[in-house]
Specification:
The structure holds 2 protein chains of 2 kinds. By secondary structure, chain A is an all-alpha fold. Chain A has a domain of 39 residues. Chain A is built from 7 helices and 1 strand, in the order H-H-H-E-H-H-H-H. By secondary structure, chain B is α+β, with helices and mostly antiparallel strands. Helices cover 24% and strands 28% of the residues of chain B. In chain B, the strands form 3 sheets. In chain B, strands 3-6-5-4-13-7 form a 6-stranded mixed sheet, with helices on one face. The chains are: A mainly alpha, B alpha+beta. At the A-B interface, helix 1, helix 3, strand 1 and helix 7 of A face helix 1, strand 1, helix 3 and strand 11 of B. Strand 1 of chain A pairs parallel with strand 11 of chain B, so a sheet runs across the interface.
């Protein structure tokens, strides 16, 4: 306020010129503080009820959509796979129950017969790699303990993509090396 | 020749994958800005300015939020309503641009070379999603940005923080709040978008209530 008075007294001509051009000149008649000037134009503080959100979250609209970008098939890890699928992939171990029909001859049946060297019994299931001394003829390999089947995703994951790209690169490098190396050697020779 | 071709193929593949990853972030359209401008284009007439005396300049220091000493304010005859704004940079010289946002009075002020060139009523974050206080240089500008988080168009986005707080055009109206952003009228945002550049400081304060 005091400064305004001093300014008004000190340079009246300039201030009058300014005022005639429509500028607002601080004077005794306008002793407002800066914050009061700003508050005068404000619509006031926000009211308590004015907390409405303006937009919806995208996730909330379709909550079942997964976050991953490339996921071909949604697999719930908790849900057990269908029983017939398990049976088709990994038949249950039916060692106790004898099959009603005669099983077709397998490799395990055929190969030991071609080398009929009786010896000590080898554990079942290792028929092909067993040493020539082992292998009781006629015992089919028992299937292993059934594990939870691993269902692959329909769309390759990013890591798979990267691995594939790396593999392509390696193949390309190998081909280039194979193609260019003989020409280099002939040039040297 | 074949080597060049292979390289080109690899680069193409890489860029395609990049585009796939970043795809759908920013479709180049801004239908809402047009509708927002049509629904509420209410710039108040930018009147003459009020030049500040040294005492008022000193008050700016105490009030906080002024990144440069203000020398003049736009003179606004009456209280602004939601959606109102003033933009007037006639005769204001070039200079550094700073932005002050006051959450208590719901106002934004743009200063250039000490003179206020624009002001508007803003929206700010709701109580559950508060707008952060502090000084934030503009990190990034996007004219036709579309929020990937809220799936909403945010024309004239000027990003302030790494987690998405920005100044952007929106339908400023009574009863609305944001998720932390500063919402300004879209036409005002267009002016600010032209005036401010990346790096210009935005200071968000909540000023003390006048006694």
């Amino acid at each position: 306020m005091g400064f305004g008075l001093v300014t008004a007294v000190g340079a009246p001509v300039t201030l009058q010129t300014l005022a005639s051009h429509g500028y607002d000149v601080p004077s005794l008649g306008m002793p407002q503080s800066l914050m009061a000037l700003l508050d005068a134009r404000s619509p006031g503080e926000r009211e308590q009820g004015a907390l409405t959100s303006t937009k919806q979250r995208k996730i909330a609209e379709n909550a079942v959509r997964p976050h991953e970008r490339a996921l071909g098939k949604i697999i719930n890890p908790n849900a057990a796979p269908p029983a017939d699928l398990v049976d088709a992939i990994m038949p249950p171990a039916t060692t106790e129950v004898a099959p009603a029909f005669a099983p077709p001859p397998t490799l395990a049946d055929v190969i030991p017969k071609t080398f009929p060297t009786p010896g000590n019994a080898s554990p079942p299931g290792t028929t092909l790699i067993s040493p020539p001394g082992g292998g009781t003829p006629g015992t089919p390999g028992t299937p292993g303990t059934p594990q939870t089947p691993e269902v692959p995703s329909a769309v390759p994951e990013p890591a798979t993509w990267l691995t594939m790209l790396l593999g392509f690169g390696v193949i390309g490098a190998a081909m280039r090396r194979r193609r260019f190396a003989p020409s280099g050697s002939t040039r040297l020779a | 020749m074949r080597r060049l071709l292979t390289l080109l193929l690899l680069v193409l593949l890489g860029s395609a994958m990049l585009a796939w990853w970043l795809g759908g972030r920013e479709p180049a359209r801004a239908p809402v800005s047009a509708t927002a401008q049509a629904s509420r284009p209410r710039p108040l007439p930018g009147g003459p300015r009020t030049f500040l005396d040294p005492q008022q300049m000193a008050q700016a220091q105490a009030a906080g939020g002024f990144d440069q000493t203000p020398r003049s304010l736009l003179r606004i005859a009456h209280a602004m309503e939601y959606g109102d704004f003033v933009w007037n940079d006639d005769g204001v010289p070039a200079g550094p641009v700073t932005v002050r946002v006051d959450l208590r009075s719901q106002l934004i002020s743009i200063f250039r070379a000490g003179h206020e060139i624009g002001t508007a009523v803003v929206l700010y974050g709701a109580d559950a999603k508060e707008t952060p206080l502090g000084r934030f240089p503009i990190l990034w500008k996007g004219r036709n940005h579309r929020s990937s988080l809220y799936d909403a168009p945010m024309p004239y986005t000027m990003r302030l923080t790494g987690d998405g707080v920005a100044i952007h055009g929106s339908d400023v109206r009574w009863g609305a709040a944001t998720h932390g952003c500063i919402g300004v009228p879209t036409a005002f945002a267009a002016h600010l978008f032209e005036a401010a550049k990346v790096g210009d400081p935005v200071t968000i304060v909540r000023s003390a209530k006048p006694a």
